[in-house]
Amino acid sequence: MTALPVSAPDLALQALNLRHAFGETEVLHGLSLQVGRGEVVAVTGPSGSGKSTLLHLLGGLDRPNAGEVSWGGVRIDTLSTQARAQRRAQAVGLVFQHHYLLPDLDVLGNLMVPGMLLRRDLRGRARELLAAVGLSGRERAMPEQLSGGERQRVALARALVARPAILLADEPTGSLDTANAHAVATLLIELAKQDDSGVLLVTHDEALATRADRRLHLLDGALTDN
């Protein structure tokens, strides 16, 4: 089990003694971790080590068989599915290898989705983020009109539009070429730190992992410092 170095008031994310199994196979064995506000933590590990399972549990998309998950000091693993989804909209930004933009909405419309869920008008914040990711003037472009790198930048801006406590990123540069991967990684880290959001990256990208404040390695259901 890795050390837990961050004090509770500064935590964006905390997981304590997570256990999870599929059938008779236990994938996570009492795993614990913390991510502080403004901290970037990278999790690496071989395929099949449980990285995606871990991210789903940390994002509240699944419940652990045992253990606790908290976002910004609020425990969420005991909440109902509806309450957990509402809290996730407030506290968590999700970025995946695929952008998952809604094809029938333009760029600005995609960034407005989190605000709709929260019943907040985030139009001004959305435009600020589009400028920050170099997409001013593309608000009315449809996803099919964007390059792969541009779509991923829109997805990043959407994940940050509600100023989440924690940003969870699953191979966020995995589908991009080297130049776009570097640009998206730089934006992800810089924008999250500006908002004092914690970042947990699950990645095979060594160049991205080396830019984190801390690196952890997942193997055989346990995390170790790397």
From TrEMBL:
GO molecular function: any one?
ATP hydrolysis activity
What sequence ranges are listed for the domain ABC transporter? 13-226
Report the domain of life of the source organism.
Bacteria
Gene3D superfamilies of this UniProt entry?
P-loop containing nucleotide triphosphate hydrolases
The record, for Pfam families, names: ABC_tran (PF00005)
- UniProtKB keywords: ATP-binding, Nucleotide-binding, Transport
Is Isomerase there in the keyword field? no
**GO terms for CC?**
plasma membrane
Per the record, the similarity remark reads: Belongs to the ABC transporter superfamily.
PANTHER family noted in UniProt: IMPORT ATP-BINDING PROTEIN (PTHR24220), LIPOPROTEIN-RELEASING SYSTEM ATP-BINDING PROTEIN LOLD (PTHR24220:SF689)
User: What is this protein identified as?
Assistant: ABC transporter ATP-binding protein
Q: Upper lineage ranks?
A: Bacteria, Thermotogati, Deinococcota, Deinococci, Deinococcales
